[in-house]
Amino acid sequence: MQHKEEILNQLHAICAKDEQATRCHHNYFTQEVNEDCRRKMVEWSFTVVDSFNLSRESVWRAIDILDRFLSSGKGSSVKARENKQSFQLASTVCLYMAVKVHEDVEMTIGFLVKLCRSYYTASEFISMEHDILFALRWSICQTTPLDFARQCLLLQLDCFDPETIDCILENTQKQMDLATSDVYFASYKQSSVGIACLGAALVESDVNSAEQEEFWSQLSSMLNFDFASKEVREVERHMLSGSTICKPKRQSQLVLSKTTSQKSCNEQTSPVSILSCV
To answer: What processes does the entry annotate via GO biological process terms (predicted)?
Structure first.
């Protein structure tokens, strides 16, 4: 088990990275590529990761890369905002990049070609990946709201029993799944979204008010962090408004640390197709 000082250092590092991160603006849509197109690609991405038993957290990572790329105004991002086929290509490559970096799987360009049933060529995938990397200056390894929530819970393991912690983590993941489909959250810090998801998860996990208050009080004291900041409140209000969509199709298997088992996507036949998504 990690030492509390190490966890605190990780949380401070997440917050520092959050302050420096480039946020996307959620008004990058056009008449051709709108918010519904983005939502459909999120749903498709969840279908892919569920089909191959990958982490749903990879979808958040993928969409974060996509939003920042489309907001950058660099390279082919302009075309991707104006053309649905280019938007689909960029979305698929972002998922590929997220899985390649963060999952213990082997996913190849050849697999992407099969996944999309040869609608795009290998050279198109490679070209788009290079374009995204250069547009974002290779900054694709961002933290997620679940990263922040997970570390907060690790820091406060003595507050809840193991079963309750598992339940809170599962419900935090569900909240993040819902938030992934709503571009509103893309312009906020990962930590702010993580706090809002964790707060909703505590309620859903039937943690009583006194325990919640004690949890946040201790966490705030240890981190010297304002958990009731204006930004956090804005995220919470939007989350409570019910505007988030795309309910998860299954409950993810969650662990506090990443497994090291090796899996392969390439030996399976793709059960999904991208062609009818947008």
So the answer is: mitotic cell cycle phase transition
Task: Look at residue 121 and tell me if it is in a domain.
Answer: yes
Over residues 14-30, mean pLDDT: 80
The mean pLDDT of 171-186, rounded to a whole number, is 94
Q: Answer whether 8's CB lies under 8 Å from 155's CB.
A: yes
The parent domain of residue 89 ranges over 23-141+260-264
Q: What Rg value do the Cα atoms of the chain yield, rounded?
A: 19
Whole-number Å distance between alpha carbons of 261 and 92: 24
Distance in angstroms (rounded) separating the CA atoms of residues 78 and 223: 40
Q: How far apart are CA 172 and CA 275, in angstroms?
A: 31
Angle at 252 between CA 251 and CA 254, to 5 degrees: 130
Say if 206 falls within a structural domain.
no
User: Do the domain assignments include residue 123?
Assistant: yes
C-beta of residue 81 within 8 angstroms of C-beta of residue 70: yes
CA distances from 173 to 55, 56, 125, 223 (A): 10, 8, 29, 22
* Distance (Å) of CA 13 to CA 7, 105, 132, 223: 10, 27, 25, 11
Q: Is residue 52 part of a domain?
A: yes
Contact between residue 268 and residue 202 where contact means Cβ atoms under 8 Å apart: no
Residue 101 sits in a domain whose CATH number is: 1.10.472.10
Q: What is the pLDDT of residues 120-143, one digit of tens each?
A: 999 999 999 999 999 998 888 888
Q: Give the Cα separation of 43 and 86 in Å (integer).
A: 18
Average pLDDT of 108-119?
Answer: 90
pLDDT band at 63 (very low <50, low <70, confident <90, very high): very high
Q: Which structure tokens are listed for 60?
A: 């958040």
For residue 91, which phi and psi values (nearest 5 degrees)? -60, -45
Res 182: pLDDT: 94
How many domains are there within the chain?
1
